[in-house]
Each structure stands twice: as structure tokens, then as C-alpha cells.
TrEMBL record:
It comes from Microbacterium plantarum. It is a peripheral membrane protein. Pfam families: ABC_tran. GO terms for molecular function: ATP binding. Its main location: membrane. Gene3D superfamilies: P-loop containing nucleotide triphosphate hydrolases (3.40.50.300). Residues 3-246 form the ABC transporter domain. It is found in: Cell membrane. Keywords: ATP-binding, Cell membrane, Membrane, Nucleotide-binding, Transport. Belongs to the ABC transporter superfamily. InterPro entries: AAA+_ATPase, ABC_Ni/Peptide_Import, ABC_transporter-like_ATP-bd, ABC_transporter-like_CS, P-loop_NTPase. This is ATP-binding cassette domain-containing protein.
Length: 260
């Protein structure tokens, strides 16, 4: 299933915060949306999910598997979210209920989408916890009893519980220490690969992007300033924005060898 965004604009409080953005995420592709803070990355993702703030005006087209999402009733969009399109946000806390055990929360998406009864959902939750390599006993704990990296693993398990075809990850590792960040990125890459999912990955960090995406769209002030393979962005950046991102990239940027 593919996502096609064409001429997307979002106007908020009279400001055009996303301006004529077009890109696609083909079946199985891993695409990054990259840009400085405030460039419109999150709002682009929220538009795809039908989760824009009240009062936002949207123009253009967002097609999921050929079906136009703009203007779709919220009930239908809600059915797509989680079921076909999974979401992981920067701060796992926002996705987790502090008063419920992790096990119940991981089991919940399956129950909401009517795929499983309580007992079966809990068994599946254990399988999902193993898949994201949560430690033994994590399902019986409450979110505050886990580390930040473990909480993000829980959020990933929840996002993937219904086996969506597209995962949208909005800065999923930004709040984590560098070593944990690398582990979570590796895990995401592995899960996306194993499930044959597509990935739309949002980040301001070209080094992070290079670890998970093969193509990317660079945004500045809500507009696309450059798009291409990540290898090209790293080795032959065309825009000043991309050159700036390359200078700011954390850690060691993966650089392709030769023409790879
Ligand atoms: N609810 C809102 N109401 C009004 N303006 C908003 C709202 N949310 C975001 N904006 C503005 O829209 C612009 C784009 O925001 P967006 O969150 O998409 O940027 P971003 O690239 O994801 O940045 P960040 O990395 O900081 O999240 C910013 O100027 C922001 O201030």
C-alpha cells in the first residue's frame, strides 16, 4: 500500500505552515521528512493521520492506497489509524496511560480493532513485547517503572500491534540517550524490514535519518527544498538547508562507500 501526498498545504491561524508539499511513500519504502524545528514536519504527518489541530485548513491531496484521506469522516480515519497506519511519537509518555499496566496497553489496540478477545490479546501482547525485546516481566509493570528506552519499546509494540502497513515515527528517539537511540533505531529498522512495512520517519537529524531511511524530503518553512536518496543528500547536498543539517548531524554520519 502506498501513500501519495500531493500539493499539501496547511493553514493555521492565517499562517501557511505547510506549503504545497508533495512526496510519496511507496510500498515497503523508508522515507524521511527532515528539516529544522518548525519546518512543518509534524504537521505534515498529522495531516496524513487526520489529527491536525481544530481550525486547520487543509488543501491538496493525501491518498492512501488510492483512497483520498482529506475530507474523510473522522470515524473512517480513526479506523485507519492503528489498523493500517501506526504512529510512534517522540515522547512515549504521551502515548501511555500511567495508571494501567504495560500489558493491558499493548493488548488494547488489538481489542479496539476487534481482532482478539481479552485472553488472546494478552497472549499476543507477550509476543509483541518479546518482538520489541522488552525484559521479562515488563508487561506487569506500570510505565513509570520502565526506563525511557523501554517505554519507547512499549509505544512501538502498541503502534505495531495491529500490524499496520505504514509506520509514521515522529522523532521517536530524540528524547533518548545516544546509545539507547541507536538500539531503538536498529529495532525499528528490523521490524519494518521483517514486516515489509513502509516507514515515514520524521527527524531533524541527518545522522539518525541515514540509519533508517533510504529516501528523504527536506522541508524549510513548510516547503520542500530538496528530495532524493539519503545517500545523495549526504554526499551531494543541493540546498543550503541540507548542508546545514549535514553540519549539525550528530554522532558519526553513515557515509555510503563508492556509489552505494
Ligand atoms: N497548534 C498549532 N497552532 C498554531 N501553529 C502551530 C501549531 N502547531 C504548529 N504550529 C506552527 O507550525 C509550524 C510548523 O510546526 P511543526 O510542528 O510541523 O514543525 P516541525 O518541523 O515538526 O518542528 P519540531 O521539530 O519543532 O516539531 C511552526 O511554526 C509551528 O509554530
Amino acid at each position: 500500500m502506498s501513500l501519495e501526498v500531493e500539493g499539501l498545504s496547511v493553514v493555521l491561524d492565517g499562517r501557511r505552515v505547510v506549503d504545497d508539499v508533495s512526496f510519496g511513500v511507496a510500498d515497503g519504502a523508508r522515507v524521511g521528512l527532515i528539516g529544522e524545528s518548525g519546518s512543518g514536519k509534524s504537521l505534515t504527518a498529522l495531516a496524513v493521520l487526520g489529527l491536525l489541530p481544530d481550525g486547520a485548513e487543509v488543501e491538496g491531496s493525501i491518498r492512501w492506497n488510492g483512497r483520498e484521506l482529506i475530507g474523510l469522516p473522522d470515524r473512517e480515519l480513526a479506523a485507519l489509524r492503528g489498523e493500517q497506519i501506526g504512529i510512534v511519537f517522540q515522547e512515549p509518555q504521551t502515548a501511555l496511560n500511567p495508571l494501567r499496566t504495560v500489558g493491558r496497553q499493548v493488548a488494547e489496540p488489538l481489542r479496539i480493532h476487534g481482532r482478539a478477545g481479552r485472553r488472546e490479546a494478552l497472549a499476543r501482547a507477550q509476543a509483541d513485547a518479546d518482538r520489541v525485546r522488552l525484559p521479562e516481566g515488563a508487561l506487569r509493570r506500570y510505565p513509570h517503572q520502565l526506563s525511557g528506552g523501554q517505554r519507547q519499546r512499549v509505544a512501538i509494540a502498541m503502534a505495531l500491534a495491529a500490524r499496520p502497513r505504514l509506520l509514521i515515527a515522529d522523532e521517536p528517539t530524540t528524547a533518548l540517550d545516544v546509545t539507547i537511540q541507536a538500539e531503538i533505531l536498529a529495532l525499528l529498522g528490523e521490524l519494518v524490514e521483517n514486516d515489509g512495512m513502509s516507514l515515514l520517519f520524521i527527524t531533524h537529524d541527518l545522522a539518525v535519518l541515514s540509519q533508517v531511511a533510504s529516501e528523504a524530503v527536506v522541508l524549510e518553512h513548510g516547503r520542500v527544498v530538496e528530495a532524493g536518496t539519503v545517500a545523495d543528500l549526504l554526499t551531494a547536498p543541493q540546498s543550503e538547508v541540507t548542508r546545514g543539517l549535514l553540519r549539525d548531524a550528530t554522532a558519526t554520519v553513515w557515509r555510503p562507500e563508492g556509489d552505494a
